[in-house]
Specification:
The protein has 224 residues and is mostly beta strands. The chain has one helix at residues 3-7; strands spanning 20-23, 40-45, 49-56, 59-70, 77-80, 91-96, 99-104, 114-118, 124-128, 131-134, 145-149, 154-157, 166-170, 175-182, 185-192, 199-207, 211-213.
Length: 224
């Protein structure tokens, strides 16, 4: 599918366009994120486009597919994130050769999110998001309990067992955002960059033997 069909249709929108935020239940029955995916994680509307962020079939909470549809019935775009994580701190980022598609997530810091396309020559075109729907059971990287790793070379795995693959290793003192516990494993949503203190997303699990809460009242939370 030609990239130009999607990006050349972008047009400016008045700043007064009001954002409507809701739950994906509002589009229940929509099958755009259908067979081969884990279902919709997020949905956005702009003046010209409908955009779906679809989860992976083996992990519905992990974004894997970008699907756009034009409002005038023209062709859209289908992208799959292969060998990279499209979930950033405040946006989803998908690549198509040398082009990058960005869907910002509405937050207090981004009250007026946009759908953007970045060209290889550095040009960027945007459309304001006027409607954004998301699942309420999927957390963002900045959410979760502030926690830290208690040993060196601790394996962060793709699932709650040693049979799952190792995504990365973290050393003692590394600050993470932890969501919940399943048995002896703790689900992580984000890892803090010690240089910038920004939280980058991660969809991983760590043994509860190697993680403590940051605050005194949460210190032994993951072993209670």
């Amino acid at each position: 599918m030609s990239f130009t069909i999607l990006t050349f249709g972008f047009s400016s929108q008045p700043a007064s366009a009001q954002l409507k935020v809701g739950n994906l239940s509002e589009i229940e029955g929509d099958v755009t994120c259908g067979r081969g995916t884990g279902g919709a994680l997020a949905y956005a509307e702009t003046k010209n486009y409908l955009v779906y962020i679809c989860g992976a079939e083996d992990d519905p909470t992990a974004p894997r597919f970008y699907r756009s549809r034009t409002r005038n019935g023209g062709p859209g775009l289908n992208l799959e994130a292969v060998n990279y994580d499209p979930r950033q701190l405040r946006y989803f980022e998908f690549r198509n050769d040398d082009y990058t598609y960005i869907l910002q997530i509405p937050t207090s810091r981004i009250p007026n999110p946009v759908l953007a396309v970045e060209f290889p020559n550095g040009k960027r075109v945007e459309e304001r998001v006027t409607r954004y729907l998301a699942r309420t059971d999927v957390s963002t990287p900045s959410q979760g309990v502030c926690s830290f790793i208690t040993s060196n070379s601790v394996n962060i795995r793709s699932g709650p067992s040693t049979t799952y693959s190792v995504l990365t290793q973290l050393n003692r003192g590394r600050v993470v955002r932890a969501l919940n516990r399943r048995g002896n494993w703790v689900k992580l949503a984000g890892v803090e960059d010690p240089a910038t203190e920004r939280v980058r997303p991660i969809n991983g699990w760590v043994s509860n033997a190697y993680i403590n809460g940051c605050s005194e009242d949460q210190f032994d939370r993951w072993r209670r």
